[in-house]
Every structure is written in structure tokens, then in C-alpha cells.
Design a protein that fits this description.
Length: 165
């Protein structure tokens, strides 16, 4: 199995920094999430389609501000295990993601973090496509205390996918 470091080198992955004056019609990136890492809860004003490429399944968490519920979508190669090869997050929805085997979520939404794993051999490689194009000035990182006040039942999960205020 290829390691996460080998993927970074082979695909020439770098920190995502965009400081331009143009506005592309769409953007597409590779996104490598090693075990032990999360994509923190955030929202953007465009739809973002996630594509599974390699490694372990990845879970996308969405928070529904209308009814306080959560939605968990698993990206991965095993269609018979309810994994999807791609999924689109709607615009203006709080969402984040994590390697599925790193965090278990009970039916009532309580999250438990798994024991640490080797992040060289346990990772999720996905792609993210935004249309209209992703722009950093549109990116809104969630504040833990605010989300917990809206979604108190899901405090454990929100705490794992946000930084302390």
C-alpha cells in the first residue's frame, strides 16, 4: 500500500494557499486527510462535491441548522457497505470531515475518538470540486461555542471537529 508521504510527493501536494484577483468558474483539489486529522467544521457559499480516490473511507458531517440534526455521509470504495464514491455538500451548510475509522458516532450522535493510528498507512485521499470556485474570503470557520449552543446534543462531535474558541 502506498504511504501518505508517497502520495504527497507523487501528486506534488502543497498547503492550499490562494491569493488571486481572478475568479475561476470552478476549482478542484486533491485533499489528503491522514489518520488523526480532521477537516474542521466550516461553511462556504458554493456547493462542494467530494470524490473518493484512495485509502480508507472518509466521513462528511453536516449540521442542519433548521432542526438541529446531523447527517453523516461515508465516502469510500465499498458501495455494499453504504459508502459513496462521491457526494455533494450543499452551499451554506456547516460541514467537516474525518477518516471514518478515527471517530465512531453512536445513533444518538455521541462521538468517540479511536486510538491513534499510523498516519503514513492510514489516510483518505479525496478530491473536492467547488462551483462556483472556492475563494478563501468566502470560507467561514465555525466557532465551537456557537455551534454547541445550536447543537448541544452533538457537543462531543463538534468538539472533535473545531478548535477551542
Amino acid at each position: 500500500m502506498v504511504t501518505s508521504s508517497e502520495i504527497v510527493k507523487k501528486l506534488n501536494l502543497q498547503a492550499h494557499v490562494e491569493d488571486k484577483v481572478d475568479r475561476p468558474v470552478s476549482t478542484a483539489i486533491y485533499f489528503l486527510l491522514p489518520s488523526g486529522s480532521v477537516s474542521k467544521l466550516h461553511r462556504i457559499p458554493c456547493a462542494e462535491t467530494w470524490h473518493f480516490y484512495l485509502g480508507e473511507p472518509l466521513t462528511i458531517l453536516e449540521l442542519n441548522e433548521k432542526d438541529g440534526s446531523i447527517k453523516l455521509t461515508c465516502l469510500g470504495p465499498d458501495l455494499m457497505d453504504n459508502q459513496q464514491p462521491q457526494y455533494t455538500v450543499p452551499p451554506n451548510v456547516w460541514f467537516g470531515s474525518f477518516p471514518t475509522k478515527d471517530i465512531s458516532v453512536s445513533p444518538d450522535g455521541v462521538a468517540t475518538k479511536a486510538a491513534p493510528r499510523d498516519n503514513e498507512n492510514h489516510y483518505s485521499l479525496v478530491g473536492c470540486t467547488c462551483a462556483p470556485a472556492f475563494q478563501f474570503q468566502d470560507f467561514e470557520l465555525a466557532k465551537r461555542s456557537e455551534l454547541i449552543s445550536y447543537f448541544p446534543k452533538h457537543e462531543s462531535l463538534i468538539s472533535l471537529l473545531t478548535s477551542a474558541d
